[in-house]
Amino acid sequence: MTIGHAIVGGFSITIGYHRLWSHRSFQACIGIRILLAAFGAGEVQWPILWWVKHHRAHHTYTDTDQDPSNAKRGLLFSHIGWLLGLNEAAWGPADVSDLEDDPVVIWQQRLYYPILVVVGFLLPTTVAYYGWNDWKGGLLYGGLTRVVVTQQITFLNNSVAHASWAGSQPYSTKTTARNVRFLSFLNLGEGNHNFHHTFPVDYRSGVEWREPNVSRWVIWLWGKLGLAFDLKTVSPREIERARLIQKRGGIYQRLYYNEHNTQSLSQLPRITWDEYRSRSKCGNLLVSIGGAVYDVAGFMDEHPGGRDLIQKFIGKDATESYYGHHLHSPDAEGILERLCVSRLADDLH
């Protein structure tokens, strides 16, 4: 019973809190969302809104002082120290407004503690009492012990999966995130952390057949059954490009993108800064980065940091923000390449 409850609760974090609500990697029917929210509360890892806020900040400001679990402050801090000395004021801003329209998220937020007590502790206690007349064992092992163990397994993704001595970095070295295979056995597929930080919107969180990733296949099965939809993936071309760039090293990566971006921009139509501003004011969702103009209308809800971070740069120059606040992954560069629609004239603002 304890193991079963831990697995279901683990899925509520890996599939629900993480891939569904934090990254919007897929959508699910309301029944699935209610189950994930209820068992997620039973894991005692705080409400969805709080969890998503800290996780999006972690992705947006990885390895900086604005990262809630900044791995560069040491293993103990990234594992649990950031919680013991909780200082939310130091976190970088993260937008969760998209979740405020989800009735399941709001329901869990309002009734978090009653749900926590019922699902996290009364449920295993009641099952043990009526099943084999051992309510104390149900409370101790199915409740308290399970919560402590599953919390520590979750925290390993903040610590060990960002430790310099662990795992590998086949996709990117822009952050400390690493693929640590043995973690995926413990946390139901979340150990492919280098892949995840490189391609955060991909629901699979890993593509290698030898990588244990039960959460991926549960989502895939739900998709086949019609319980989940809009499963987002990154193209094999983008994945292989990231792998190749990483294999050849950082210098090649900079040269590749500089040359590629120069060639791509030269083929795009030119517009003036005033024309760019005018189109934006007329309702076009355009953002300027490094002299190029990107149509972000179809990407707003997929941005890992939330749509508001993009919204505030509509019709403005986001170059400093894009390159200054966060080391974007090769996947981000690939997305920009697809969204680019024009280039700005040289005599701009």
Automatic annotation (TrEMBL):
The keyword Isomerase does not apply. It holds the Pfam family FA_desaturase. It is a multi-pass membrane protein. Residues 268-345 form the Cytochrome b5 heme-binding domain. GO terms for cellular component: endoplasmic reticulum membrane. One of its GO terms (biological process) is unsaturated fatty acid biosynthetic process. Keywords: Fatty acid biosynthesis, Fatty acid metabolism, Heme, Iron, Lipid biosynthesis, Lipid metabolism, Membrane, Metal-binding, Oxidoreductase, Transmembrane, Transmembrane helix. GO terms for molecular function: heme binding; iron ion binding; stearoyl-CoA 9-desaturase activity. CDD domains: Delta9-FADS-like (cd03505). InterPro entries: Acyl-CoA_DS (IPR015876), Cyt_B5-like_heme/steroid-bd (IPR001199), Cyt_B5-like_heme/steroid_sf (IPR036400), Cyt_B5_heme-BS (IPR018506), FA_desaturase_dom (IPR005804), FADS-1_CS (IPR001522). It is found in: Membrane. PROSITE patterns: CYTOCHROME_B5_1, CYTOCHROME_B5_2, FATTY_ACID_DESATUR_1. The chain crosses the membrane at residues 30-52, 111-132. Belongs to the cytochrome b5 family. Belongs to the fatty acid desaturase type 1 family. This is Cytochrome b5 heme-binding domain-containing protein. The lineage of its organism: Eukaryota, Fungi, Dikarya, Ascomycota, Pezizomycotina.
